[in-house]
Amino acid sequence: MLSVVRVHLPSEIPIVGCEITPYVLLRRPDGAVSTDDVPETAPTDGQFMRYRWYRIQSDRKVPICSVHPMEQATIQCLGCLKSKIPVTKSYHCSAKCFSDAWQHHKVLHERASSALNENGAEEEELFGRFGCGGSGVLSTAGSGSLSNFGQSPSVSNGPVPLYPSGTDKNSGETWFEVGRSRTYTPSADDIGHALKFECVAVDSEKRSPVGPPTSIMTSRVIPAPTPTPRRLIQVNGDVLGHLDLDSQTSSLGTFTVLSYNILADAYATSDAYSYCPTWALSWAYRRQNLLREIIGYHADIICLQEVQLNHFEDFFAPELDKHGYQALYKKRTTEVYSGNPMAIDGCATFFRRDKFSHVKKYEVEFNKAAQSLTDAIIPAAQKRVALSRLIKDNIALIAVLEAKFGNHGAENPGKRQLLCVANTHINVHQDLKDVKLWEVHTLLKGLEKIAVSADIPMLVCGDFNSTPGSSPHGLLAVGKVDQLHPDLAIDPLGILRPPSKLNHQLPLVQSVHILLLQEW
């Protein structure tokens, strides 16, 4: 008999616009245990799984704080209502909460005003699709700039309880069916209400359950919080003053580039980010913020790091394709990695089809370079130790693109304007500074060969896990490493000797190290 062994939810708090996919472990009639679904279209031994989602609606509606979603709201910003900002963004749990959030909160007012006058439909596309609309959970409002909600003794100032207090008519709660599939995406109508997921095995012929249903409750649905605006750092123009940028851009034209380590879902754990609530770490929540932000920059070339293979194939490639981007991908190697093959991460490069066309793709696997290096300079007795230090499964993705814009056609009609884009993720371990520098040097030497053979400009992007002043940053920005740099003191394998070899001839304009908000 088909039966349910266990059901649990990926996050304890459902978010508007973020798909919920419960973990359902099934025992099949042959005794095998699996998470694979048994749909009505493909029953097993005459049985299939039926799923239902219910909204548990209470007569007593509870407004939720937009800053602290586990707290009930006590005040409301009437300026948000006048600016036609989604009402769920207007709630705050206390006057202090509103005051502390004001610098960010007023940005919502400014953005709403400018969006109405400037962005129009585009703003709706970027913020409306993944934000929360609708009226949310309403309570009686007073007058003035802040509206106070009256609190009865039954309303607690503490966190909203995980489970509703009851499910019968005496408690004022009613169940409404809202979904009939394994997954469900909460809408604005669900805000403030708990959800119930129910699954049961059904006989294909009799269309009746073959056992008791298994169910699980969520906490109350909350609106998707508005991401904090980025504080972008402008590169000082004086740094680039010694370069003739006008002559360099006149032939190719101008274009924009975004490089972003998006933090793979496999690494977004509560152990690593204990300060972050689990619902904010869930991929269903994070991917919407990531996509919204990436699309919002309108970059011509996008280089992403820590992109899981399944997320590239199922999400980023098809979603960015809708916005005119072609995709390239290289996953990390698996000599060290031992997890789910589909969850391994890598580098993804996207480019606008109307600006560039794809010419050639190169893949760099530092593991192979490590094998060649140890064969050449490491004694056989030390090779195993050397490889364990060097092999980290890191890679680089190199794409040669042809520009479809610029003035090169007028100057030389027969010449193609090519651009080489490198995208990499360098070793993260700070105690392996020799490996970090070796990986950067190996990549640059490979790019040198491409540049010499094709006389092609280079664009080097990635997460180098290095700060200004470090040896990898110096190699990228200056073209060489100071032979007295303290990083060179860590070289147990002798792979950085002589230090004079640590240079390159690529005319890189500038190396910029960007710190990203990982909690997104």
Give an overview in words:
The chain is globular and about 80 Å long. The chain is α+β, with helices and mostly antiparallel strands. α9 (366-377) packs antiparallel against α10 and α12 (433-454) packs parallel to α13 (471-478). It has helices spanning 78-82, 95-100, 102-119, 121-128, 245-252, 278-281, 283-296, 309-321, 366-377, 383-390, 408-411, 433-454, 471-478, and strands spanning 3-8, 23-27, 33-34, 47-58, 75-77, 91-92, 146-148, 173-179, 194-203, 214-220, 257-261, 301-308, 325-331, 345-352, 356-365, 395-403, 418-425, 458-463. The chain is built from 13 helices and 18 strands. Mean pLDDT is 82; it is low at 120-144, 150-168, 237-245 and 511-520.
Provide a concise account of the structure shown:
This protein is α+β, with helices and mostly antiparallel strands and 520 residues long.
List keywords for this structure.
disordered C terminus, 520 residues, cytoplasm, single chain, alpha+beta, four-stranded antiparallel β-sheet, globular
Topology summary:
Layout: E1 3-8, E2 23-27, E3 33-34, E4 47-58, E5 75-77, H1 78-82, E6 91-92, H2 95-100, H3 102-119, H4 121-128, E7 146-148, E8 173-179, E9 194-203, E10 214-220, H5 245-252, E11 257-261, H6 278-281, H7 283-296, E12 301-308, H8 309-321, E13 325-331, E14 345-352, E15 356-365, H9 366-377, H10 383-390, E16 395-403, H11 408-411, E17 418-425, H12 433-454, E18 458-463, H13 471-478
Parallel strand pairs: 11-12, 17-18
Antiparallel strand pairs: 1-2, 2-3, 4-8, 4-9, 5-6, 5-7, 9-10, 12-14, 13-14, 15-16, 16-17
Helix pairs in contact: 9-10, 12-13
